[in-house]
Amino acid sequence: MSDAPHPRAPRLPWRHLLAAAVVALGLGGVTPLAPQGALATPQTGAVPGQDAGLSQDAVLGQDAQLEPTDLGDGVEGQLSADLVLHDGGALSPGEAVTATILLSNRTDQIASAGEISFHIDDETIDTRYDLTAWTENTQSFPDFSLGTEVYRQTVDQVHPGSTLEFTVTIPASATQFLAASSFGTRGLTLQWHADGGIAAQGRSSFVWDAESPANPVGISPVVPIVTDLGDEGLLDAVELEQLTAPEGDLTQLLDAVAGTSATLAIDPRLLVSIRALGADAPETAVAWLERLESLEDPSFALEFADASLTLQAQAGLEAPIETTGFRFETSQHEFFTEVQPTPTPTEPTGTETPGSTNGTDAPEVEGQADSTGELPLETSLTEPGETDPAQTNPSQTDPAQTGAGEPDADDAADEEEPILEPREAPEAEELLEFDYTRPDLSWPASGTVESLEALTDWGAETIILAGDQATSSPDRSATPSSQQQIAGTEVLVTDQTLDAAIASAVTAESTLEFQDASTDIASLLAVIAREAPNEVRQIVTVLPREALADPELLGELLAGLTDNSWTAIDAIPTRADDPSILPETELVPGGYAQETVTEFLELTSALERGMNLTALYEDPQAVDQELQVALLWTIRNSVIETDAWPGERAEFTEFATGVADEISIVGDSEIQLIGHESSLPLFIENASDRDVTVELRLRPTTGHLTVDEVTTVTIPAGTVTRATLPVQAIANGVSGVEATLWTTTNVQLNNSAEFVVNVNASLETVAVGILIGAGVLLFVLGIWRTIRRRTRDNAAEVEESSESESAPTESSNND
Fold first, then answer.
1. Which of 19, 47, 307, 476 gives the lowest tally of CB atoms within 10 Å of its CB?
2. What is the pLDDT of residues 365-399, one digit of tens each?
3. Where is this region: Disordered (predicted)?
4. Residue 485: φ, ψ to 5°
């Protein structure tokens, strides 16, 4: 995509194009011009298309009555007429005027068919006061204030609750009476004639772009390079790829500002988000950052995430909150550095060097035969006076047409690619590094500066100050340059009327809104140019400090300001060597509501509590850094005191301190404990999304138990882990136990639990006694059984012995 701005043609609906085409073809009637300085007599012209036998609805589309567009300040129960000029509100001699007309009926009656007429003021608008009065006083109908009527045509009826929208082209002949007029802003009035009178009128203005000796007004726009994407910290790879794609918002933003001298207010969060991803950064994001670094536009750094300095100062902080590092992100990625390889020395090939002579030192002479008796190949075979074709036609000696001086294949092989070597993750200073051209600049949010002293104490040297916070001289006759001083501090006072008009243009939600705002900008700057035509003035203007939904609108606006003869885009004024010589103004103190300051102090308390809890994690320092980044994102200027502010505060508080509620003790409320020394089993649940390490502590409520130790437990994210804690029973009975969770740095978490423990310390002694008694009894029984068995065995032996002795006696008696 080109670096040049990309102006867009007006994106008109098809019915607008059709109506404009019909007018251009001459199908509509044009009212003859009145003499210069005289009011034109109302005459009836034809609606575009009527002469061709078409109704207005046919030309504009059957749904024209239902067009919802409404740019006017219509009041319920009334009719209203609005016109929006095309082409940026500038009209050169010989050009036609093209405008979109909106006729709205907010009554309950049909507005009858009638006419519309256009009137150009005979005099230029020469002051900002007159321009404001002209634009706002749309309901005044005296004809003498409208100037010359230049065009008239008929219009159809408008139904209740409807808006009729169509395009009108006023031919160049209608503005011939301005041919000899001077450059300047002129009023343009639209009148809607219906029901026998003037039903409504609308006003606009345009710049008659005749030659002018007035010096162009220098405009120094300050463009924030920011994004609203992200959640609590840095941008991830998916978000960066979306933003830096060829049609991404950040890409289009650089397209809009490249080469325009607009001053870039860069959010360092973008730089860090890309660099902290290391090798995982999207190629489009890396290329975008390289392009940003190569731009020649002036630049300065916003606070990280565009955090509000003035809120921190008003809250009494001694120093602004700063990021100490980004290890929470860099630790997840790999980083490499390019190293040029060491050239490899080439080995001799053994071929003869130029000038060698086959073993002799004498050089060969052209045309002289070598040792073989043949002429060398390098010898010219042409006769004296003839031209060697090879010398005049390089293709004969260089068929590939490589040409002298181009590297051959061997040279290309010697050019090795750089080697990527792993490196340590970069520190914060390297991630934040950028070559800002205006590091002295500070840009507080509009209306929030309570005192310049805090900002200068924190390093600001030149402060971009909203126009409503600087006094203006009561006898001022012309818009001053922005570069001024307050008590010796250089300030660049913005023009808030211009700021508001530019904001309307770059945030426009339709082509008509953009064209309307562009016309307001052109008219205002033309008035400023005529105020002091011989002075060289430079006005600083700022864009909304938020991501633009359509950055192309900015490019189109800057292109228009560059093309206008009465404006020029300039770099922001160079810092004065001695601010005391600048025009002096005074600060109109501003600031945030006290409620907002209190809410911010609550956020700092949440940050402190959150940092006390980071010992739960494996890398407490990395989590500390993540919390700092999240707080700065929460207090960004674009969200403070908006509808999103309460939700942002709640999200940060939950992020910082929520883990204290997400770790709890679960399980039964009654535990049986037997014996003097045992372990009490408890279950700990971690409902957070990170692994945590906690200390489990017990406190008995009676003297039945003593606990002398704590248990350290690591619980993976989203799990329940069993923990055991050694306890000692002193006496039997029922004891209450309170279990609490702590960080390893002695910070108690929010959840605790109470248990009832049934202590049976003597039951262990009884059980041991029973076991010993049972053992003794078994031993005695064993001995008794053994003795009894032996006695029985001995008796049996005696009996057997007696029987054996009596047997021979009986035998002898028988004999």
1. 476
2. 444 444 444 433 333 334 444 444 444 444 444 44
3. 335-428, 793-815
4. -145, 145
Neighbour tally for 225: CB within 10 Å: 19
* Pair 514, 614: CB distance under 8 Å: no
Residues 6+ apart with CB under 8 A from 675: 729, 760, 761, 763, 764
Sign of CA dihedral 231, 235, 236, 241: positive
Percent of residues in the chain assigned helix, strand, coil, to nearest 5: 35, 25, 40
User: What CATH class does 14-208 carry?
Assistant: mainly beta
Domain 662-761 in the same topology as domain 14-208: yes
Quote the CA–CA distance of 211 and 182 in Å, as a whole number: 7
| CATH 2.60.40.10 matches 662-761 | yes
Beta strands 90-91 and 197-208, pairing class:
parallel
Q: Does residue 615 contact residue 744 with C-beta atoms inside 8 Å?
A: yes
Tokens of 271: 């730089």
User: Lowest-confidence range among 348-362, 485-499, 668-682, 716-730?
Assistant: 348-362
Domain ranges of the chain: 14-208, 594-659, 662-761
**Burial class of 335 by CB neighbour count within 10 A (0 to 12, 13 to 18, 19+):** middle
Backbone angles phi, psi at 761, to 5 degrees: -70, -40
Those residues with Cβ within 8 angstroms of residue 764's Cβ, 6 or more apart along the chain or in another chain? 674, 675, 676
Specify whether the CB–CB gap between 201 and 191 falls below 8 A.
yes
The one-character DSSP state at 166 is: E
Q: Note the pLDDT tens digit of each residue in 52-96.
A: 322 333 233 323 333 344 444 556 788 999 999 998 899 999 899
d(CA 684, CA 665): 4
Contact 107, 188 (CB under 8 A): no
CB 111 within 8 A of CB 79: yes
- To the nearest 10 degrees (0 to 180), the angle between helices 496-506 and 511-531 is 160
- Could you tell me the two tokens for 272? 């860090």
Q: How far apart are CA 401 and CA 199, in angstroms?
A: 80
Report the DSSP beta bridge partners of residue 568: 218
Q: b/e string for 86-104 if b means 16 or more Cβ within 10 A?
A: bbbbbbeeeeebbbbbbbb
Number of helices (H) and strands (E) in the chain: give both, helices first.
22, 28
